[in-house]
Amino acid sequence: MSPLQFDSGSQVLNVDRLDLRKGFMQASRPRRANRCRELGRHHQGNQTFLTSLEFLGGCKTIGRSAYLVENKQGAVLLDYGAAFNGHPTFPALTKPSNLVVALSHAHLDHSGGLPLLFAGGSVPVYMTAITRDLTRVLLEDMQRVSEYYLPFEEQEIERLLRRIKVVEYKEPVELDSGFRLTFYDAGHIPGSAAILVEADDTSILYTGDINTINTQLLRGAEIPARDADAVILESTYALTRHDPRGEVERSFIETTTEVLDDDGIVLVPAFSVARAQEIACILNHYNLSVPLYLDGLAREASRVFLRHPPFFRDYQLLRNALNKTKWVQSRSQREKVLKEPCVIIAPAGMLKGGIAAMYLSHLMHDPKNAIMLVGYQVEGTPGRDLLEKGTFDDGLGPEKVKARVRFFDFSSHAGQDQLLELGASFTKASHLHTVHGEPKACEYLAATLREQHGIDAVAAETGMRVEL
Ligand SMILES: [Zn+2]
Ligand SMILES: [Zn+2]
């Protein structure tokens, strides 16, 4: 066992990269006190436990998801994500022998650390086919736009891509270490999976990021493993009830129609993977005939989507929607787009750079236009400032935005009602740990499942380890 962070390749690191490595070691060192308390709680008499679960990251926060399941023969790492608070950080990991990785989905808070596992080493990584292609797009973009030195380069991404083993939903994969992995559709983004890990007469279900309702783009999650012995449950929207999807869609269409009737332009800053295409599908589903433009990384993600029909609820709807969309390719095209009433879909979803910020600086001064935010806006992002203060800083200081600003809750995560219903259905679980949410969200979900449904639920802490 050697600490992954320094196991090889260190001779080629420059000073900045060493600093970054120090940063993520400090940021993610396991908390001893919690680990001991948790071990004590679950250890009974002289019983020998065969399988353990360790929470390496993604606890009481969103970012750096990583959960390690180990037995005597090997280990399964569920996700290995990055966090982007200032500079990128990654979960601390002492690489066990006979390790394989199972990736729930392509988002960087789950996949952003994977290339680190290929700095001087190599492990098999299991994921769905579309997750492989989307992970490539997002990791290469992370590499391209990072303002910080990353502790990996293109060659580590290439080595990762070569070791990916594609899995099908609901088809179990048997590993040499005795573990069995089964992926189930999680309904969050195309290819997203809840992962069931079985070994030594015990089973652990990791929900990944999950959405239980149908959207225009995707089918809701399919989770048959309700008899799992242990569950890792995401908590993103444990404190929020989503409005019924149809109402949100109709309100979005009404506002868009109003703005266009006033000769205005609608800018939809949207995440490149899934949200941008979901908006295109909604406009198509409601037959809104309007010039529609797609820009930035959303084009690349759309190309990947079109190559993988089975992952979509209604592939024909997706294809029609993207066929009617004009893909903006150049600066001169961008200038033309801004001259007529239209809808522009462009990343980044929280206006943190990206092409959407460029469009906004042109559109913000005219009250006829509208900025329609369609995803969660993290505190401290330009999108959150726009929502709360009505201002945008295009590099010359914050300025009042005269265009209309609206928010539509097109979440790709289960809301409070769905999370409680899902959590309460794991009646046989002897451990349920809530993860992937603000501290209050993780704690509320665990407490409610405990007090109202009798589930042994705890909000996980980074460094916590439980024996199963
Ligand atoms: Zn996600
Ligand atoms: Zn996530």
Give me the secondary-structure topology:
Layout (H helix, E strand, L loop, with lengths): L1 E2 L11 H13 L4 H11 L9 E6 L8 E6 L2 E5 L4 E3 L1 E3 L4 E2 L3 E4 L5 H4 L13 E3 L1 H17 L8 H9 L1 E3 L6 E2 L5 E6 L7 E7 L2 E5 L23 E5 L10 H17 L4 E4 L5 H11 L6 E3 L2 H10 L8 H9 L2 E2 L3 H7 L5 E4 L7 H10 L6 E4 L8 H8 L1 E3 L4 E3 L3 E4 L8 H9 L6 E5 L3 H15 L3 E3 L5 E3 L1
Parallel strand pairs: 4-8, 8-9, 9-10, 14-15, 15-24, 16-19, 16-20, 17-18, 17-19, 20-23, 24-25
Antiparallel strand pairs: 1-7, 2-3, 2-26, 3-4, 5-6, 11-12, 12-13, 13-14, 21-22
Helix pairs in contact: 4-8, 7-9, 13-14
The structure holds zinc ion (ZN) (2 copies).
> pLDDT below 50 for ≥5 consecutive residues: which ranges?
1-49
Mean pLDDT: 89
What is the helix tally? Answer: 14
Give the number of domains: 2
The distinct ligands, each listed once, are:
zinc ion
Q: How would you describe the overall organization of this protein?
A:
This protein folds into two domains: 2-240 and 413-467, Metallo-beta-lactamase, Chain A, CATH 3.60.15.10; 245-407, Rossmann fold (3-Layer(aba) Sandwich). It is 32% helix and 21% strand. The protein contains 14 helices and 26 strands. The protein has helices spanning 15-27, 32-42, 108-111, 129-145, 154-162, 245-261, 275-285, 297-306, 315-323, 331-337, 354-363, 382-389, 416-424, 439-453, and strands at residues 2-3, 52-57, 66-71, 74-78, 83-85, 87-89, 94-95, 99-102, 125-127, 164-166, 173-174, 180-185, 193-199, 202-206, 230-234, 266-269, 292-294, 326-327, 343-346, 370-373, 391-393, 398-400, 404-407, 431-435, 457-459, 465-467. Strands 10-9-8-4-3-2-26 form a seven-stranded mixed β-sheet. β24 (431-435), α14 (439-453) and β25 (457-459) form a beta-alpha-beta unit. α4 (129-145) packs antiparallel against α8, α7 packs across α9 and α13 (416-424) crosses α14. One zinc ion binds at residues 105, 107, 188, 209.
